[in-house]
Amino acid sequence: MSEILNGLGAAVQLVLTLDPYLLEIALRSLAVTLSAVLVASLIGLPLGAWLAARDFRGRGAVVVVLNGLMGLPPVVVGLFVYLVLSRNGPLGVLGLLFTPWAMILAQVVILLPLIASVGLQVMRDLWEEYAELLTSFDTGPGRQVATLLWEGRRGLLTAALAGFGRGIGEVGATMIVGGNIDHATRVLTTAITLETSRGNFALALGLGMVLIALALAVTALSHLAARGWRAGR
């Protein structure tokens, strides 16, 4: 018990003093996940809006596949991205493997179905409200998608925050394509795994505190965004 308390005390000290090593890892984690969320949102949110506004044969199957991809195991994604970026892979010439760019790409693949699916749910409700109006003005698909994205921006923020919450805690794919290289690709989750295996529980707990704080902050922001969206409607 005393060992746990000592570890917690040391962890709190690291957090309060803004330990440079801990701060470096936390900032890298934020940079990787925020970049992945931005890219996944730029692709996934318009995709969700387009699926909500369009009616075509096979649309149901596309939605089912999209929802199914939300449960795609991160280690499988990591393996796929590793093969694509490896020396013999189609993108091996870019030399992205074991860099933050590879980690961002892996997280984009993981987060895209989640953000698109949540966005689709938001856009589906909005389309029921605006379908008749937009159809009467004979607007094209691009204008319809743009209108839905603008009117549902508060709800879509919730989708992006949900993606961030999943991305910041991801470890499997990040470890595979990033390699957990010190001062290069080490992020919060991979650092916690490493320091725990080394028996450095103080640093592992400090990293865990930062990760929990980020997760709680995202949850609070998501809740506030959802309330604002409902109130705005």
From the N-terminal CA to the C-terminal CA, the straight-line distance is 52 Å
CATH homology-level superfamily: MetI-like
Could you list the spans in which at least 5 consecutive residues all have pLDDT below 50? none
- Helix and strand pattern: HHHHHHHHHH
Explain what this protein looks like in three dimensions.
The protein is mainly α and 233 residues long. The protein has one domain (2-232): MetI-like (MetI-like fold, Orthogonal Bundle). 79% of the residues lie in helices and 0% in strands. The protein has ten helices and no strands. Helix 4 (74-85) crosses helix 5. The longest helix is centred in the middle third of the chain and has 37 residues, at 100-136. It is globular, with a radius of gyration of 20 Å. The N and C termini lie far apart (52 Å). The mean pLDDT is 84.
What's the helix and strand layout?
Blueprint: H1 2-16, H2 20-53, H3 59-68, H4 74-85, H5 100-136, H6 141-151, H7 153-168, H8 172-178, H9 188-198, H10 201-232
Helix pairs in contact: 1-10, 2-5, 2-6, 2-7, 3-5, 4-5, 4-8, 5-6, 5-7, 5-8, 7-10, 9-10
Summarize the structure.
The chain is built from 10 helices and no strands. It is mainly α and 233 residues long.
Observed structural traits:
233 residues; MetI-like fold; globular
